[in-house]
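dumping this here so i dont lose it
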C-alpha cells in the first residue's frame, strides 16, 4: 500500500510541476432534505453520505449529525495526511488513530446572538503506532499540522457565500 501512496503522490507532484494550473481543484457535494425530519442525503462523487440529528435535538438518530461529520472529516484528513507524508518520507506507520472533539453551545443555534452557532473550540488527539524514532514522528506531526486541508479549513477564516432560490411546489422549475 505504501508503494501505491508514494506512486500517487509522485504522479500528482509531477503533474502539478508540469502544469501548475492542475493544482487547482474544486470539490462538490449535493445535499437534499425531503422529509419533515432532520435527515439529509448528500451525494459526493457518487457516494451517499447521510446525516441526521440525535433524538435529543429532534432528529431520528439514524446517522451522525453535520457537526459530528466535521469532526470525522478532521480525523480522517489527519490520518490520510499522516499516511501520505509518512509514505513520501519512507517512514513506517502501522496505524493512525485520531480522537476529535468539538465544543458547542446550543444557545447559539437557538438564536442567542451573543453565542456562536458552531463550535467554539475543536481538539484532537492523535496516536501514531510506528517503530520509527520519536523525533521522526514529531517531525511528521509538524508536517501534518502544516498541510492537513481540513485542519487548515477549521483554523483559517475563509470567504463563504451562497444563494437561496424559492421554488413553489409543482412549478416547472422545481428541482427533481
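and the seq i came up w/
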Amino acid at each position: 500500500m505504501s508503494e501505491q501512496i508514494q506512486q500517487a503522490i509522485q504522479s500528482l507532484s509531477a503533474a502539478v510541476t508540469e502544469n501548475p494550473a492542475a493544482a487547482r481543484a474544486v470539490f462538490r457535494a449535493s445535499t437534499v432534505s425531503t422529509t419533515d425530519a432532520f435527515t439529509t442525503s448528500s451525494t459526493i462523487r457518487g457516494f451517499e453520505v447521510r446525516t441526521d440529528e440525535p433524538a435529543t435535538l429532534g432528529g431520528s438518530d439514524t446517522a451522525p449529525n453535520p457537526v459530528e461529520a466535521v469532526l470525522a472529516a478532521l480525523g480522517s484528513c489527519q490520518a490520510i495526511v499522516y499516511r501520505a507524508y509518512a509514505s513520501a518520507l519512507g517512514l513506517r506507520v502501522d496505524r493512525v488513530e485520531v480522537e476529535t472533539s468539538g465544543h458547542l453551545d446550543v444557545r447559539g443555534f437557538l438564536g442567542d446572538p451573543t453565542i456562536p452557532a458552531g463550535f467554539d473550540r475543536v481538539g484532537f488527539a492523535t496516536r501514531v503506532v510506528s517503530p520509527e524514532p520519536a523525533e521522526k514522528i514529531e517531525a511528521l506531526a509538524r508536517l501534518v499540522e502544516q498541510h492537513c486541508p481540513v485542519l487548515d479549513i477549521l483554523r483559517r477564516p475563509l470567504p463563504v457565500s451562497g444563494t437561496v432560490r424559492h421554488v413553489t411546489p409543482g412549478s416547472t422549475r422545481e428541482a427533481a
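The chain is about 40% helix and 20% strand.
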